Amino acid sequence: FVEKDRTVSIAFYDPALKAQPVAAQIITATAEAPTGKVKLEFEKKGDLLVSKTPLPEGEHYLVVVQVKTDAEAKSKNFRIPLDLNLCKPCGNAEYACICDE
């Protein structure tokens, strides 16, 4: 999730959606902002991985997140359009909307 200070917090869940502690997961992210690409590095804070720096100003750009379960695993890529407007039905920011639409 994007926090109020524009840092990014990442949590991990099991198939039953129970929160899991950070273990050997490796996260990298690149914000493809209009002002240029910015790489985000993450550090462990409690049960979350939190970006060391905030996202660039603005929105409506892609954030590419690469997730590896451990150093040996193949990475999975996620391209997330950054839209911070609130979805009225679910109340989440549009990038995290859980509605069926």
Quick recap of the structure?
The protein is built from no helices and nine strands.
Describe this structure in words.
It is a single chain. The chain has strands spanning 9-10, 12-13, 19-20, 26-33, 36-40, 42-45, 48-51, 62-68, 76-81. By secondary structure, it is mainly beta. The chain has one domain. The strands form three sheets. It has a four-stranded antiparallel beta sheet with strand order 5-4-8-9, with no helix packed on it. Strands 1-7-6 form a three-stranded antiparallel beta sheet, with no helix packed on it. A two-stranded antiparallel sheet has the order 2-3. A hairpin with a 2-residue loop joins strand 4 and strand 5. It is globular and about 35 Å long. The two termini are 20 Å apart.
Percentage of residues in DSSP E strands: 35-45%
**N/C terminus separation:** 20 Å
Give the % helix.
under 10%
- Sequence of secondary-structure elements: EEEEEEEEE
* Structural class determined from secondary elements: mainly beta
- How many helical stretches? 0
Q: What is the count of distinct domains?
A: 1
Rounded average pLDDT: 92
What best-fitting shape do the alpha-carbon axes yield?
globular
Strand order, main sheet: write it out.
5-4-8-9
* Total beta-strand segments: 9
Q: Biggest β-sheet: count, sense, barrel?
A: 4 strands, antiparallel
